Amino acid sequence: TLHETALLGPVPAASPAAGATPAGLETRGVSAWFGDHKVLERVSLSMAPGSVTALIGPSGCGKSTYLRILNRMHEMVRGAALAGEVLLGGQDVYDPAARPADVRKRIGMVFQKPNPFPAMTVYENVASGLRLAGIKGVDKDEVVEDALRRAGLWNEVQGRLRSPGGALSGGQQQRLCIARSLAVSPDVLLMDEPCSALDPTSTRRIEETIAQLEQQVTIVIVTHNMQQAARVSRHCAFFLAGEDQPGRVVEAGPTEQIFEHPVDPRTADYVHGRF
Ligand code: ADP
Ligand code: MG
Question: Where in this chain does the record put each ABC transporter domain (predicted)?
Answer without folding.
Answer: 25-271
